[in-house]
Design goal:
Arc Repressor Mutant, subunit A, Rossmann fold, alpha/beta, 55% helix
């Protein structure tokens, strides 16, 4: 294992797709493929064992689908950035992946062009959506702006919502904003109540739909 490289695991049941991504990423000097799997359950087992920096997961796989796999991976290793790879471009599939905690949703048709850039972006903690997927999300944002519950949020609540969806803990947010973790938790509870969501996934979906967290 080369020091400093981004460690990537790839799970896809189509050998041609899997091998193609391996070939592309292996040619990048800053990326190292450390494992592959052909089904979701095996992927989860191996990823939990080796904790890669980035996991590229096919949405539709035997044994365990990509959404369920993502949830299990992040429950064990929250710092592993998950990229969902799919043939489907519907808003429903995109938001399911993002709600599960994926940092990126990438169409297979554009993976050859975008996969290395995507790996680098999510490894840096950014959310990264390919061109067509970004358009789908932007359309959803536009359609909801006219009657946005964001208008009910104070500036401080918007600020904390942004930091929460960026992945910062209450302690980290508190240090940045000079607030106690308990105060940050109070703000989080108030946000969930105002926005009628019950968990972090709901806050992330809201932030994406209303343009409060970057798509890249």
């Amino acid at each position: 294992m080369a020091p400093g490289r981004i460690r990537v695991f790839i799970a896809d049941d189509h050998a041609l797709v899997r091998d193609g991504i391996v070939a592309i990423l292996s040619s990048a000097p800053d990326i190292e493929v450390i494992g592959t799997a052909a089904d979701g359950r095996l992927a989860v087992e191996q990823i939990i064992a080796i904790a890669p920096d980035v996991a590229i997961i096919d949405l539709s796989m035997p044994e365990l689908d990509g959404i369920s796999a993502t949830r299990q991976i992040l429950a064990a290793h929250p710092k592993t950035a998950v990229v969902i790879l799919s043939m489907h471009s519907s808003a429903q599939h995109v938001f399911q992946a993002l709600e599960a905690g994926a940092r990126s949703y990438l169409l297979k048709e554009s993976a050859g062009r975008e996969i290395a850039e995507t790996v680098r972006a999510v490894h840096l903690g950014r959310r990264h959506l390919g061109g067509r997927i970004a358009e789908i999300v932007a359309e959803g944002i536009s359609n909801r702006r006219s009657a946005s519950p964001i208008d009910s949020l104070s500036n401080r609540e918007r600020e904390i919502l942004k930091l929460v969806t960026d992945g910062l803990s209450s302690a980290e947010i508190g240090r940045r904003l000079k607030l106690s973790p308990k105060t940050v938790d109070t703000y989080r509870s108030r946000l969930m109540q105002k926005l009628q969501v019950t968990d972090l996934a709901g806050l992330i979906k809201f932030a994406i739909l209303h343009g409060l967290t970057p798509l890249e």
